[in-house]
Amino acid sequence: MRRLQLFSILGAFLVTSLSSASAFAKDPIRIGLNNWAEAIAVSHMWQQVLEEKGYEVELKTVEKAILYTGLSTNAIDLALEIWMPTTDAAYYERFKDRIDLHESWYHGARLGLAVPAYMEIGSIEDLKDKAATFGDGRSSDRIVGIEAGSSLMAMTEEAIKTYGLDYNLVTSSEMAMISTLDRAYRQEEPVVVTLWSPHWVFAKYDLKYLQDPRNAYGATDDIHFMSRKGFAEDFPEVLGWLNAWSMDDDSLGTLMAEVSEAESPEEGVRTWIAANRSLVDGWLDSRQSAQN
Q1: What is the pLDDT of residue 25?
Q2: Measured on CA atoms in the order 283, 285, 286, 292, is the torsion positive or negative?
Q3: What is the pTM of this model?
């Protein structure tokens, strides 16, 4: 009888152990991200949060078009930065039947052309008369952009046509654009760049968006996350946490600042999570997640 009881106890222990292990005996969660500051910050943040909870997470840096293709073909599980209803509308309409759009976690995001506050210019319309609007005769005949294929670059190309601007749109990268902005800012030279909010550069430099009277860049967006079909069934707990996730200018701004100032995104995220543990734990609260 004792031997039978021992076997029953051991059997129950093995079943429990195997069941617990099987919860994480899945493929890694693959998060796709485009090379924007906030996407880098929140993707690394969720990688660390999910790894703390026992999940394996892989980050894949891709262009926006490949991001949507990856979600639609199950090559990518999650994308944490999707701007709707304007910026990502064209991509979403193309792939919406093969991906799932979820909750928004940030409200009031925007895109546009930005200049240093010292420039005597207030509207995109003013760019038509560069020498006069830049104050002392100094002028620029280019708009410094980011990566080709991004929604922001496509919208800027349309804005140049809409406003009839005789400007060259320079394709570069986020970091190259910021480097150009920094160099011009330190010398108080005229510079026009493509920018978006939220972004940490607005805390570092005194910048302003140019007014957009013809609405070339549309209204403000909300930032959502998206997943491949079937992710909700495979990772219901993770989806509940993500649905409970919300950030504002302060929380996202401090996260992006930590990441930009640290030696690596991992280090910056680790510092931010330690300082904001109660906020993160709120997203992971099982009762709150169950309601979303």
Answers
A1: 47
A2: negative
A3: 0.74
